[in-house]
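Can't attach files on this board, so I'm pasting raw text. These are the components:
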Amino acid sequence: MTKNILIAPLAALLAPLLAVSPLTAINAQEPPKQQFPSPNAIVDAAPASDWKTVAARDLLVMDLIPDAKGEPRRVIIQLMPPPFSQGWIGNIRKLAAAKFWDGTSINRVQDNYVVQWGDAGYDNPESGETEQKALPEGLVEVPESEYQVTDPSQGPINKAMMAATNSVFVAQGDAPEPNFLFDDYADIAFFDQGWPIAQEFDSQWPIHCYGAVGVGRNLSPDTGTGAELYTVIGHAPRHLDRNIAVVGRIIEGIEHFSSLPRGKGQLGFYADPKKRVPIRSIRLGTALPDAEQPRFEYLDTESEAFARYADARANRRDPFFVKPAGGADICNIPVPVRRMKTE
Amino acid sequence: MTKNILIAPLAALLAPLLAVSPLTAINAQEPPKQQFPSPNAIVDAAPASDWKTVAARDLLVMDLIPDAKGEPRRVIIQLMPPPFSQGWIGNIRKLAAAKFWDGTSINRVQDNYVVQWGDAGYDNPESGETEQKALPEGLVEVPESEYQVTDPSQGPINKAMMAATNSVFVAQGDAPEPNFLFDDYADIAFFDQGWPIAQEFDSQWPIHCYGAVGVGRNLSPDTGTGAELYTVIGHAPRHLDRNIAVVGRIIEGIEHFSSLPRGKGQLGFYADPKKRVPIRSIRLGTALPDAEQPRFEYLDTESEAFARYADARANRRDPFFVKPAGGADICNIPVPVRRMKTE
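---
Top answer:
Structure tokens for the assembled complex are below.
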């Protein structure tokens, strides 16, 4: 009976925390730390029905030449779903089908910023000019207006409204909008179809988080074709949002980018062309033989498991932590993506 | 005269932007882009009086063994000023004076998270136990309460108050608190003595941004001695704020950390001890001969140049940008630190 007397005060003490975390069942038989699983433990315990398959046509498989020790270097990119950046993504599918990137290279590695790849050009000794590979036919020019998607049916949601909720991350299962976050770069940020999205008034756009893949371009009004791509390898450069198209994210192998030597030229370009890292090939997932097609799944961002995961990221209560943060920025809640188990 | 007629409407059009950026002088002789210098251009143009010297006793000079090509790898760490984390920093000065880290190693490189170094221990084949180097005498045990500094003279500033200003980053020269930012992890964030700091009610604490150096520890109530250190090499892991001591930041050479191969063991530890990167030495700046002491300076975060720089980071209007973000999180406004020019 002594034990039971202790349970009630403990539950009462924890109630303010438990209110935002529907999963935490009080169990007097377990030490307290068991009541607060880590974000990863929540993901691991998510039911199979909470995972959604990534279609092979939404994957790019990139093979760099092997490293100095002969180890293969494969990087997998997931492309964004509609309605975001589809003009550029159509181009990218065509570029991959045309094997455009085969024999091009990684040309820029800027610390805490980006790794960039594409055709570095060929210095023709006869003409004295730098020549570039011909682009495949059928690429479209995408206007700047497509950096964001405007949907007048979306009501304006502003910071003051969110502040009124007095909660940076609200993950209650019964809240009408469980995944809205404060955001320094927009009115709000949230997850849509497994992707971090920002919104201001009736416009939405994809977010530059770690691992995001974007389209290099020249000065405005150029928006880039998709032939020149980069990925984020540092703190989220959110000032690029709405200024460059985000087309995807790296879901496996980013360490083959992030651990490359930094370029010593301006903006982190390799001053010495010999430092460039050759790309052997980039293929759409569907271009690979069936048995070799990569099979990935992501945790449904509408699921209860994701809400619990996001809440745990914003309020770490697993044993290592002394003080839950009480919030998170959206790039600190990476959407779980994993290889599907093969039967 | 025609030119002068054009100036007025242009100035009127730009007024809403100019209001937050005191530097931008309208000059009809210049093309428009010259009116909006990049953040780096603002820093480069800052007067010498806006730069503050970093004392040599606040620097740690870390030499890894040379890389595979025989190139030296030097990393410079700046320690935090009072009142933050001084207990651990006192220990760190003692550890450096005792040459504790010489012959230890980098043992962990976790992608988008941290690089960690210290004594990995020695597996004694006779005892079958892992033995660790003796710590120097005189290290203090620092309580968890020192993860933050509490100053009851600080008034509570909350998100709702900040929301009422309707501005994420307010850099007007005449605003009473020019450097306050919204923050997902605290009531506000701001810069103090050149460092990013968060505040909630009357407590302040240092922030885990890219390059921040912190003190590894075991489970609470352990707070670590300072013998085991890590640095952030990814998106700011703000959930660590107030959970681990931040003691400094890397101001030169972080690429020697961030480009290391990622560890394949749990949490990014090198599963194979041979992958560890030996540390040749870590010394306080003052332990080096006068002529070799590193001399750095940082842009005074109270200066007008810094306010303009931060405003420009939050509202990019230099030629590449189409859409200024209208805000920034504090880790996306890195404090400029540079080597002093030798006369």
